[in-house]
Amino acid sequence: MCADLSFATARSSDIHTAPTVLVVEDQVLLRLYVSDMIEQAGYTVLSAENADEALTVISSNPQIRIVFSDLEMPSEMTGLELGHHLSRTRPEMGFVLTSGRQMPGSAALPPRGLFVPKPFLESDVCAALQRCVH
After folding, report:
1. How many CA atoms lie within 13 A of 123 on its CB side?
2. Over its length of 134 residues, how does the chain's per-residue pLDDT go in tens digits?
3. For 5-35, b where at least 16 C-beta lie within 10 A, e where not — what string?
4. Which of 6, 25, 72, 111 is 20 to 30 Å from 103 at the Cα level?
5. Cα–Cα distance between 15 and 44 in angstroms, integer?
6. CA distance 123 to 108
7. How crowded is the C-beta side of 95, counted as CA atoms within 13 Å?
């Protein structure tokens, strides 16, 4: 766990400030693993199987501050397209894109967008989330 980057604290008043992260990943085991990793780092976690479901989750959960998304998913929209859509509709939202197949150029990422290649380390994911929060 990324203890030095964690939002979990001993004071219960700080728990309410933990940002909410939406994990968007079509592979169920990877989605569960990443969700658990991010939750262990002290974040509140929601999840979606694809970009279409992510938009539904985001519309009903305005507290989401960061989206951690796979690039390639079986939906109308790729993870990168989701990130660009969110940069237009929710510009304050942080966005982390991940993929094991291709890395988009930095110009391809949406504003405030970060890229974490697969396979990733917990520390890489936690560092990217921390950068989105600050």
Report:
1. 1
2. 554 445 544 334 444 578 999 999 999 999 999 999 999 999 999 999 999 999 999 999 999 999 999 999 989 999 999 999 999 999 999 999 999 887 777 669 998 899 999 999 999 999 999 999 98
3. bebeeeeeeeeeebbebbbbbbeeeebeebb
4. 6
5. 9
6. 24
7. 27
Encoded tokens for 112: 């405030």
pTM of the model: 0.88
- Strand locations in 25-106, DSSP E? 44-48, 64-70, 94-99
Tokens of 67: 């989206």
